[in-house]
Amino acid sequence: MIFRISLLLLAFMAAKAGAASIDQQTYIIHMDKNKMPDLYDSLGNSRQWYESIIDSITQFSSQEQEEEQETGFPQLLYTYETVTSGFAAKLSTKQVEALSRVDGFLSAIPDEIMTLHTTHTPRFLGLQIGKGLWDAQNLASDVIVGILDTGIWPEHVSFQDSGLSAVPLKWKGKCESGTEFSPSNCNKKLIGARAFFKGYESVAGRINETIDYRSPRDAQGHGTHTAATAAGNLVEKASFYGLANGSAAGMRYTARIAAYKTCWPSGCANTDLLAAIDQAVADGVDVLSLSLGGSAKPFYSDSIAIASFGAVQKGVFVSCSAGNLGPSISSVDNNAPWIMTVAASYTDRRFPTTVRLGNGQTFEGASLYSGKATPQLPLVYAGTAGGQGAQYCISGSLKKTLVKGKIVVCMRGISGRAQKGEQVKLAGGTGMLLINTETGGDELFADAHVLPATSLGASAGIAVKEYMNSTKRATASIAFEGTVYGDPAPMVAAFSSRGPSLVGPDVIKPDVTAPGVNILAAWPSMTSPTLLKSDKRRVLFNVISGTSMSCPHVSGLAALLKSVHKEWSPAAIKSALMTTAYATDNRGSPIADVGSSNSAPATPFAFGSGHVDPESASDPGLIYDITIEDYVNYFCSLNYTSSQIAQLSRRNVTCPDSKALQPGDLNYPSFAVNFEGSAQNNRVKYKRTLTNVGTPLSTYAVKVDEPNGVSVILEPKSLSFKKLGQKLSYNVTFVSSSGKGREGSSSFGSLVWLSGKYSVRSPIAVTWQ
């Protein structure tokens, strides 16, 4: 059930409370507990410290005290002792100003009563409290999710342990001490935290502890965000300055979290990643989530592929991000078939802006700026804004005499998006229009800008510059429209990396897509939302985008499936998520690809099998399972040497002297077909085996959507199962009518096994090489 309280009603309620509280509202005050005086620290009770602070800010001058009587004295409502440091209080704006001068003050975030629903991605994915995968019995089982990232902010409310049972007996991990981190920072939710930096420091030198913590504590925010997305608690009234209001929840919000800090200001060393995955598996994690990657390389020389294969051998599910180098083809990372590779897509929520030019033209942009609209202001760009580099608004390029009080047009590139806004603000600018380059297309990023600013697509950017060239008095205004729902969705993000895989073209990558654009989740209370030093804002939740955000969604969903099907292998969980994924949006049209011309329908090289559907995945009917022996045969089919295979599998393997092995026979839930040459009737034949996990007595019939220029022959065309766990095989032959003139092109289709409520779908991607 959804309850809605409008801002108008909230204003009415405030008015009814009486004139004495008109200038007051409730704030959540975040405090640095390390600044607590020894007097209170020795008592072990921060409440007395907070009470003394409340008393201190009432000591105004006599005039201020008279004004204070009109607005009411501060009212302490709650103190936060365990999951975060601070308190809730009703304060006037002048009291907040006084509080901001207190040593130890971090931020004051206004309380809000808005729409009570999820921060959208769980609801968008079909997850409902008390039903299906989110029913109490399923959520009660213990699953441990390991996060390899930039660490974690343990005091955050998303990681409190209220209501959780004791730490699982199987857990062998621990919480390591380090800079501003101790074993006491862990609890029954965050059950483990370690930091790995020896490899990083050997290359980059000792970690600068004024920039990052030499411990599991997160200074960059990324790890805190991904951990909460996968398994953070259900937290009500979450938002980013009023945007994306709702209840924040990880996909498997009752799971335990183990944080492994492997990434530092300049990146993540493979030596550290290997050590962390090795330790995580020994500690007893069930799922590993890695929102990171590098360049594609053969699996036997890919540290993540090697370590994750060792994890899969121990029954651990591994989910990785596909990368953010789209829409370039063959840019996908983490290509190993035992890894779940996740692309990024939009939900139906956006944060629009309206840009109005002086000639009446209007354009839609996107921004997380939550302030008031700008008036119509002069526009400046490039030479009219500064010197060399001014078109990109890089550091030192803007001139105050040209920029002050104006809206600056900045092209994307060279520096970060939020950094450009910082430069405009430092130069005295009032606003910014951030324009995509041609390669960026019309994809719109919503950023937490430090001044009124919005992104605009490449086509809008062209129109803005044409207008500016047509007049010497160009003006524009920016209006911020808040949070809007109901867009066509999902759509594949343009930045999401694409297939086909350069190192494993016999497997379609990425595997699936999941929400990865404008995702709201937990954020460290000492880190600004833009990561800029000049940005003094502090928030509990932040909105960011990337395949780094889509990956933990799938990690959390895998944890949900592991709760329901404890006996399933990582490959079985992966198969269930892939074969139940959907390829149409909420309006019944094919899922669009924002990175393609005119947002054409996405292909399997953009979204793999489609968008994840967790409730359907919990009951997929059939699965394509893969054993470790299957993977070893796959290595043999790739012509890997015995030493290369041993590097991956820690097994001494002698491959059979047979040409019968082919990579396409790996029992994968999708089909990547590669035709060499242009001869007619070019053909390849693959074998697949399905395991019945649905109805004991069931018959499945096949339906094929043939790729253009390819005939697909199935044998048999129906499969009759007599019991659960039964395995039945089929052969599928792909025949090319002709590859002449099609070299380098691809065609797509699907193969679906149907029985009653079950639809077991596999995408087909055919490439002529």
From TrEMBL:
Keyword Protein biosynthesis attributed: no
Q: Which Gene3D superfamilies match?
A: 2.60.40.2310, 3.50.30.30, Peptidase S8 propeptide/proteinase inhibitor I9 (3.30.70.80), Peptidase S8/S53 domain (3.40.50.200)
Query: Its family?
Result: Belongs to the peptidase S8 family.
Is Secreted a UniProt keyword of this protein?
A: yes
Pfam families reported in the protein's UniProt record: fn3_6, Inhibitor_I9, PA, Peptidase_S8
One Gene Ontology cellular component term attached to this UniProt record is:
apoplast
Domain Subtilisin-like protease fibronectin type-III, by residue range, is 665-766
Cell location: Secreted, Extracellular space, Apoplast
- Annotated ranges, domain Inhibitor I9: 26-117
Protein known as = Subtilisin-like protease SBT1.1
Q: What is the lineage of its organism?
A: Eukaryota, Viridiplantae, Streptophyta, Embryophyta, Tracheophyta
Biological processes, Gene Ontology terms:
proteolysis; response to symbiotic bacterium; response to symbiotic fungus
GO terms assigned for molecular function: serine-type endopeptidase activity
